Each structure stands twice: as structure tokens, then as C-alpha cells.
Amino acid sequence: MRLVAKHAQVGYLTPGQRPGCRNCKHFEQVRHDSPVMAARQACLKHELEVTSGGICNDHQLRRQANESQFAYLTRQRDLLERALLDQRRTPQVRETRP
């Protein structure tokens, strides 16, 4: 089986495809002209600095350039379905009290 087909079969996502601040519609990255200063990454909704790999409960996918509304909504639905399946597969650890 080809690697690409296997990836599709198991639902593999690259880091760029996984939900995170970098692909959220509230994410903003400001680059400076200075070679010394790093780019500033911020969440416009919560007004705080973030990392591109972070995520919060208010994450919303950013619509890609030239992407139809239907394709965008389908991508968002697929992402939510995967998260729900992962949640069901992950056993919940419960605290036991004596």
C-alpha cells in the first residue's frame, strides 16, 4: 500500500493540517524589518501572544485562499468529527476516592 493511501486510511494529518493557532482565523503574525526581533504571533480574539502550535477552545479554521464556502465547511466538519472520534477512543482517567 502506498504511503499516501495509508495516511488517508488512518486519518493522518500533517502539522499544517492539524488544528492550531497557525490555521485559526483569529491568528495574526506580524513580521518586523529588524533581523534581531522575532515575528510577533498573537490571538486577536483573546488579545494575547501565542505560539503557532498552540490551541484554545475557541479555535476556528481560517478559510484558505480560493476555497469555496462548501469546501471550507466540509473541512471544518471533518476536523470536528475526527476530534470527536479521538475523544471517544481516549479512555477517561477518573480519580478514585477511598
Protein topology:
Blueprint: H1 3-10, E1 27-30, E2 40-43, E3 48-49, H2 69-89
Antiparallel strand pairs: 1-2, 2-3
Please tag this protein with its features:
extended; alpha+beta
Secondary structural class: alpha+beta
Total beta-strand segments: 3
- What spatial form do the alpha-carbon principal axes imply? extended
Largest sheet descriptor: 3 strands, antiparallel
N to C succession of SSEs: HEEEH
Question: What is Rg?
Answer: 18 Å
Number of helices: 2
The helix fraction, in percent, is 25-40%
- Unreliable spans are none
Describe the structure.
With 98 residues, the protein is of the alpha+beta class. 30% of the residues lie in helices and 10% in strands. The chain has helices at residues 3-10, 69-89, and strands spanning 27-30, 40-43, 48-49. The protein has a 3-stranded antiparallel sheet, with no helix packed on it. The longest helix has 21 residues, at 69-89. The chain is extended and about 55 Å long. The model has no long low-confidence stretch (mean pLDDT 81).
A few lines on this structure:
The protein is α+β, with helices and mostly antiparallel strands and 98 residues long. It has two helices and three strands; from the N terminus they run H-E-E-E-H.
